[in-house]
Amino acid sequence: MKERLLELLENSYAPYSHFRVAAIVVMKDGQAFSGVNVENASYGATICAERSAIVSAVSSGYRKDDFKELYVMVDSERLSTCCFMCRQVIQEFMCPDCEIVCMNCLGDEKRFRVSEMCPFPFSEEDLK
Q: Cα–Cα distance between 34 and 66 in angstroms, integer?
């Protein structure tokens, strides 16, 4: 997975922050979807790699209970975790026990369960 993420970093479009991110979401059936961050001069139009990968899976017909794990790599020696917008989307589609693996470009990693990364989620229950 590390090698594929390193390749994907090259597809990132980050001319403003120069902070490239790649993600791969793996489904329960073994299918994988990739994503990279795509920045925009209007920062609000930027999409993160994690959301890009998840949206790609959903666009291909996968749904909430189909997700297994998410791998995220940043083009930095420092380990980073997902932003809070991504965490909201992650908790929407991935079960609390699903694993998120965050890596730096050297391959160092830290593993989290969705429930650890999103301990107080806003969910459909809050809308009732």
A: 15
Q: Is 50 a catalytic residue?
A: yes
Place 123 in a pLDDT band, splitting at 50, 70 and 90.
confident
Confirm whether pTM is higher than 0.70.
yes
How far apart are alpha carbons 7 and 121 in whole angstroms? 32
Catalytic-role residue among 3, 7, 10, 50: 50
Nearest C-alpha neighbor of 123 from the set 102, 82, 95: 95
Pair of tokens at residue 9: 């970093």
Q: How far apart are CA 38 and CA 46, in angstroms?
A: 6
Of the candidates 126, 102, 127, which has an alpha carbon nearest to the alpha carbon of residue 114? 102
Alpha helices in the chain (DSSP H): 2-9, 49-59, 84-93, 114-117
Helices and strands per DSSP (H, E), number in the chain:
4, 5
* Token digits of residue 82: 């997902």
Using CA atoms, how far apart are residues 6 and 90, in angstroms rounded to an integer?
22
Are 98 and 121 a contacting pair, CB within 8 Å? no
